[in-house]
Amino acid sequence: MAGMALCVGNGTSRSAAKLAYCCKGGRGILNSRLCIFSERPSNTVVFSVGAGGFCRATGVRFASRLAWGRTVDARFRNNTLVAAGAAMVAGVIAGFCHFQKVEMASRIAKDIEGERAILEKCKEFMSAPVTDIEVLQQRKEDMSTRMEMLIMETQAAFCRALEEVDGGKFKVDRWQRKEGGGGISCVLQDGKVFEKAGVNVSVVYGSLTEEAAKQMRSRGKVLKGKDGKLPFRAMGVSSVIHPHNPHIPTVHFNYRYFEIEEEDGSKQWWFGGGTDLTPVYINQDDAAHFHGTLKEACDKHHAQYYPDFKKWCDRYFYVRHRDETRGIGGIFFDDLDRPSQEEAFGFVRSCAQTVVPCYVPIVRKHLSDPFTAAEKEWQQVRRGRYVEFNLVYDRGVKFGLATPGSRIESILMSLPLTARWEYMHEPPKGSREAEMLEVLRNPKDWV
What values do phi and psi take at 373, rounded to 5? Predict the structure, then answer.
């Protein structure tokens, strides 16, 4: 056997027995080399050490590497040498076993801590996660698990903050998708502050339909399925809030993660999402606060994220047949798969953590603002534009409607409880409504 052979005492010596026990019954892997303890005709035990000085059986790296090509044989007549060698090896082995126990205990403690952390977090959610908690604990390092925990945390944090403002309670509606997965829809309807508020989580999996795959290929995705199938896993949190008071803006956010398994078993993954504001009337301070909060989150990761994703948001939430944006924007991004999965996830987490601080202070600021019937009518007209964008252009709605087993109630949760379409509506020149329309037709920088 290649490597260094060290013969210590005879096969019945205490040190040999301890060595055999430490490496699990006489077998271990030393740096990809099989380590075998066996008795030779002379009752000597051979211990082979691989080049890297690492025993996978114990998980311990040797303090120093032994010289190659040299053999110390216990058959030397000098009993002192034999005894010294045995004592040396016994001491080293005892150290290996000690470090093995310490490392094993450390790993077990870390695993238990991670599982407990998942369990404790789940207690704070609006509902149990879509994926079974035991599965999440077993796969706690997987990105799909970490993302599911993040979207559940985001849903709970936003719902609790809105309940505190409104005084009402969200209805929690769990649903299952027979093709795989499910979701949790939280809806507050006809509250004191919010006419309709929805915060949804979904975790779905299965195979993409050809129509859904076609939408992704149109974005430049090169997808290679097996036997015409493309296994996928998608998850996200999305929310749309429609307040009663026209001086409180509508807000929308969505953060999601997507995985596709190709025919060779490799995976493509990407993140997407964003947060945007749709006011009925322009308030410079509100716009600056909203955009400033998002910019601060983006700047933690890359100085170019906010300007790039702000422009992307203005382009995406654009009602082409009206030649106007849906609102005053925010940030939007999709197909984010760089610079690394860990860094992309960190960015998404920073953005998700802004949904409360960027919006709730604006709500509180305008809680008692008076409004007229005419202002309420303008809000209804603007909501009509909101509906037009969501049903005609929104990528998430189109994907949901093209995916078998999708829950229509959750997909259309984004639509307001009431809206209005007036024929040939045009606000009077110089009015606040006309000012709002001018901003929607010519997006501006707010920070």
Answer: -65, -35
Amino acid at 85: G
Entry field: residues in the chain:
447
Angstrom distance (rounded) from CA 134 to CA 144? 14
Q: Which two tokens stand for residue 142?
A: 């997987």
Mean pLDDT for the stretch of residues 196-219? 82
CA angle, 143 as apex, 133 and 233 as ends, to 5°?
Answer: 80
Q: What is residue 43's DSSP assignment?
A: S
Query: Which region among 42-46, 160-164, 250-254 has the lowest average model confidence (pLDDT)?
Result: 42-46
Active site residue 289: no
* Alpha helices in 123-279, H assignment, sequence order: 133-138, 143-166, 210-217
Given the residues 242, 244, 247, 252, the one annotated as active site? 252
Which amino acid, 269?
Answer: W
Query: Does the pLDDT value for residue 37 go beyond 90?
Result: no
CA 394 – CA 386 distance, rounded (Å) = 10
Q: What is the DSSP letter of 226?
A: B
Measured CA distances, 209 to 99, 201, 213, 301, 361 (Å): 53, 21, 6, 35, 42
The answer, yes or no, to whether residue 150 has pLDDT greater than 90, is yes
Residue 168 has pLDDT above 60, yes or no: yes
Closest alpha carbon to 231 in 271, 174, 176, 181: 181
Average pLDDT, the chain: 81
Predicted structure pTM score: 0.74
